[in-house]
Amino acid sequence: MSDLLSMVLVFSVVWISRLVTWTERRIMTVQVCFGILQVAIVSVLLYIYYLIRKRADSKMIKARIHQHGPTQSTELISVMEYDLMTWNTLFFKGTLIQIAAIGFISYKFNTAVPLLTQGLMSVSRLWANPLFKSHILKRAVQRPFPEPSSPWSIANMVAPARRETPQ
């Protein structure tokens, strides 16, 4: 449901933004708001990092460490180590690269729509993240976190066809 809601929100923002006359002042206002939003998100992520280190959960879990490449090995690691690995991926690959790429596109092409859509997506991505749910919302979250399923994976494309096929 949250993926569908995010998609509807993004399409709505894009459609509504077509109705706006984008002056330099409006674009600058969106850029400043995007910057403030990203500072808030980075602050929340740094606070999550602080909470992970403070909690220092030493409970051992079995998790996949090397997810890329032909071999996927599982190792026994602590919850803190697992949360820190997940946090590193979220912070560096998910947030900082997004800020740099979208900021560059907005600056280079002087456009506001990517900032609006990424602003919405970054907030919804943070809200749905298991680390946010565990450390900020204080919900019980099972570790290792479930792998997000891609709607474009072969398994997800074939599964509906299998359900419809009479046996």
What can you tell me about this protein's structure?
This protein is mostly helical and 167 residues long. It has one domain (2-149). The protein is 67% helix and 6% strand. The protein has six helices and two strands. A two-stranded antiparallel ribbon has the order 1-2. Helix 2 runs parallel beside helix 4. It is elongated. The two termini are 30 Å apart. The mean pLDDT is 82.
Number of DSSP E strands:
2
Structural class: mainly alpha
Number of domains: 1
Chain-averaged pLDDT: 82
Low-confidence stretches: none
Briefly summarize what is shown:
This protein has 167 residues and is mainly α. The chain contains six helices and two strands; from the N terminus they run ααββαααα.
Keywords, separated by commas or semicolons:
167 residues; 2 strands; elongated; two-stranded antiparallel ribbon; mainly alpha
List the helices and strands and how they pair.
Elements: H1 2-17, H2 24-55, E1 60-64, E2 74-78, H3 79-109, H4 113-128, H5 130-135, H6 154-164
Antiparallel strand pairs: 1-2
